[in-house]
Amino acid sequence: MKRTAAQALVETLENQGVDRVFCVPGESYLDVLDALRDSPVQTVVARQEGGAAMMAEADAKLTGRPGVVFVTRGPGAANASSGVHVAQQDSTPLVLFAGQVARAARGRDAFQEVDFAAFYGGMAKSVTEVDDPDDVPGTVADAFRTALSGRPGPAVVSLPEDMLAEPCAAASGDRVDVDGEAVDDSQVQTFDALLADAKRPLVVVGGSLWRAPDTARLETYARTAGVPVACVFRRQQLFDHEHPHYAGDIGIGLNPALRRAVEETDLLVLLGTRFSEIPSQSYALPLAHTPVVHVHPDASELMRVHRAQLAVQARPGAFLAASAARGKRSGYVNALHASYLEWSRLPHPSPGAMTMGKVMATLRDLGDSYMIVTNGAGNYSGWVHRFHRFRRFGTQVAPTSGSMGYGLPAAIAARLRHPDRTVVCFAGDGCFQMTGQEIATAVQYDARVIVLVVDNGMYGTIRMHQERSFPGRVHATSLINPDFAALARAYGAFGERVERDADFPAAFARAREARMPAVLHLVVDPEAITPAETLAGLAPQ
Questions:
Q1: Is the pLDDT of residue 541 over 60?
Q2: Do the beta carbons of residue 45 and residue 23 sit within 8 Å?
Q3: Per-residue pLDDT tens for 242-273?
């Protein structure tokens, strides 16, 4: 009996090196689920398609290969779009397979029918619908190639349910690997000359096309070239924070001294990053007169966001390997690193009996450089960005898109990928409740994550902006929350409520020792809105 298109699809995934897929089951792709049953590929069943897509996106961040997610048509595809948007904004390779109505029913507004090209067209790099079962292997390979090429991102493949049951004679093909363009030697020589003349250069790193050897090369390069290195928003894992050339992160709540360095630099090197709205401080940086060298693997991104004196199409690791720059600027470099150390010094004052400063100090005292930290969106994450010392590549999984609800799905994906590591998820009370049901997924797959739910009884970031723009007119930002610890226990996880700093270290130790996923419900003062200010706008002393 010939293999079906669904079986050919799963076989092609195996050839692409896929070992895990995420999904919410749907009748539109039952044939694929049946084929996965006989495959060595692990199928992780999430509780909502947005969570499944975020898990796949986070897995891709950790592996460098496309994450894979399966969803059904209509509501399933709509729910999954949140994860597709994260992949697009974060430049993460992702392949989403969406079940579709039968071919004969298309265009009739059939049950849960969606025009995927119209729906995903503004987010995905490509949207393809497979009509002929023999096209399945080639279409899957093309989706992987698209997701990995240039600026990585999401590719969507639509699967009509009747097509999946038909025979497929086409071979499943070889693994797709995408190599970067060769680095232009003349451009590297020009760069080396510019760097040699610079007195206050600043290298800013970001983007998704980094692997551990690249970040190790960057650390060596920083010393030999005599340059300070800063990381953009939620890409802090790219450089060891205790390296003497680390200057800090350029994101929300920017260290004023680092901002001055960006303003005063005589050569700003954007390496792998697009330097988009958040790191550029709403496009206020770089200043108009600042000389910029932009290195990015996608030619279409060069000169798109910022003008550059020199634009180089190259992957960061390849560019670093080609550069022969040498230099010493110890006074300048040391001053920037000292400023970072002072900016991230603990303890840090904050209102309330349970403070984020104590949480960050406890994690720092662990000295676990392999611990993976995830988060969603919210002011609580500012404490992570400012005070956590990221030491190694692959230890930060966070959305540059600013998507709420991301932290828990990402933590589950991280723990499944690295079951021997401690994985800590930071989530606000509003953030957690967007995907909190995925605790059930963590329990089902024994993903022993530790979730720190930071509960201030409101959508804190929006409340902060509301207080500034419409003082005294609070509306639609307050939350009545459940007992998150009891909720965790109802799911079969460890749960504990923490209301005082003195109780947190022991509670965290119990969570680490629990042989199950864990949720610590941290009850914090609403005034402790960010490390830099209270909700009333008063700077902590």
A1: no
A2: yes
A3: 999 999 999 999 999 999 999 999 999 999 99
Cα distance between residue 402 and residue 379, in whole Å: 11
> What DSSP string describes 294-330?
EEES-GGGTTTSS--SEEEE--HHHHHHH-------H
Q: If you search the block for the tokens 């390849």, which residue do you land on? A: 318
Instruction: Give the residue from 140, 143, 25 showing the smallest Cα distance to 76.
Output: 25
Exposed, middle or buried: residue 36 (CB in 10 Å: 0-12, 13-18, 19+)? buried
To which H or E segment does residue 490 belong?
helix 484-491
What end-to-end distance do the CA atoms of the chain give, in Å?
74
User: In 10 A of CB 420, how many CB atoms?
Assistant: 6
Mean pLDDT of the chain: 96
Distance CA 109, CA 126 (A): 23
Contact 155, 98 (CB under 8 A): no
Give residues with Cβ within 8 angstroms of 12, minimum separation 6. 136, 137, 140, 141, 172, 173
d(CA 297, CA 274): 10
Q: What is the pLDDT of residue 181?
A: 81
Radius of gyration of the chain from its Cα atoms, rounded to whole angstroms: 24
What number of H helices and E strands is found in the chain? Answer: 19, 18
pTM greater than 0.85: yes
Paired tokens of 18: 């896929």
Contact 127, 94 (CB under 8 A): no
Helix/strand/coil (H/E/C) assignment for every residue in 118-171: HHHCCCCCEEEECCCHHHHHHHHHHHHHHHHCCCCCEEEEEEECCHHHCECCCC
Query: In whole angstroms, what separates CA 223 from the centre of its chain?
Result: 28
How does DSSP classify residue 236?
G
Contacts of 468 (CB under 8 A, 6+ apart): 537
Which of 15, 392, 313 is closest to 149 using CA atoms?
313
Element (H, E) at 496: strand 494-498
Looking from the CA of 53 toward its CB, the CA atoms found within 13 Å total 31
The structure tokens listed for 289 are: 């007169």
Q: What is the mean pLDDT of residues 473-501?
A: 97
